[in-house]
Amino acid sequence: MITLLARPRSLVADTTVTLEEEEEHHLVVRRTAPDAAIELVDGEGARAEGRLALEGRRLLVRVLRVVQEPAPPATILAVGAGDRDRFALLAEQLAPLGGTRLVPLETVHTASVATRLRPTHLERVRRRAREALKQCRAAWAPVIEDPCSLAEFLARAGAGRRWLAELTGKTAPSFGPTEPITIAIGPEAGFTAEEQAAFAAAGFEPVRLAPHRLRFETAALAALTTAWLARQRGGYG
User: Fold this and answer.
1) Which of 49, 68, 87 is the last residue of a domain?
2) What is the DSSP letter of 97?
3) Which of 54, 120, 184, 237 is deepest in the core (most CB within 10 A)?
4) Which of 50, 68, 86 lies at the terminal end of a domain, its last residue?
5) Predicted confidence (pLDDT) per residue in 174-213, tens digit
6) In 3D, which of 43, 46, 49, 89 has the Cα closest to residue 65?
7) Is 181 helix (H, G, I), strand (E, B) or coil?
8) How far is the C-alpha of 87 from the C-alpha of 90, rounded, in Å?
């Protein structure tokens, strides 16, 4: 069954929905025949089963059944906003690995990166994060926030577990399957001593993700996997 994206809050049983141009193009390339089974997800938890219909030259989907999936447990990554292309690659992997929110951090060491993520790049990054739903079939798209300073981020950091990815940190502890978690990942050159102290004051515990230093996007993916495994262990505790 082909999975396509629908506009948020557009999925209602026994209605017909129009597809965005990119989704129509995907079906044309796949040479999908009318009446083919289609799955639609809207990125806000709605998942629908439908059938492809042709109206003139437009491809539509007749929605047969809709279910609303519960939101996944909050899994927030705060990552030094380094190279924009690698940041976009990271955004693509959030949903498959359970990430729910990505916060680009403006840090001392990201300020000097010529190819760093900037606000003008966010539309493309958000689109790539949402497009990943078609491959992984998740119902919820991760939120990609605007870049912010470390002080702004720490002032509004939510409740739950707080990890700071650190090569000298401890092994990740288990925690409850629905408990929120926020994980901070430094840029390529890491956080400064002052930034690390700010994280420590805010209750972030150093956690080791791998035996060697990682690039920021690799560390972020390792963090998501580590958090997922820690939740699984906590669920059996």
Assistant:
1) 68
2) G
3) 184
4) 68
5) 999 999 999 999 998 899 999 999 999 999 999 999 999 9
6) 49
7) strand
8) 5
74, 158 Cβ separation under 8 angstroms: yes
Same domain, 129 and 200: yes
User: Which value, to the nearest 10 degrees, does the dihedral of the CA atoms of residues 144, 194, 155, 148 take?
Assistant: -30
Rg (CA), the chain: 20
Q: Can you list the positions of beta strands (E) in 87-213?
A: 101-106, 143-144, 148-149, 161-170, 181-185, 205-207
Q: Is 43 helix (H, G, I), strand (E, B) or coil?
A: coil
Q: Give the tens place of pLDDT for each residue, 122-158.
A: 999 999 999 999 999 999 999 999 999 999 999 998 8
pLDDT tops 60 at residue 63: yes
User: Phi first, then psi: what are they for 206, rounded to 5°?
Assistant: -65, 130
The phi and psi torsions of 189 (rounded to 5 degrees) equal: -90, 5
Cα–Cα distance, 202 to 182 (Å, whole number): 12
pTM greater than 0.85: yes
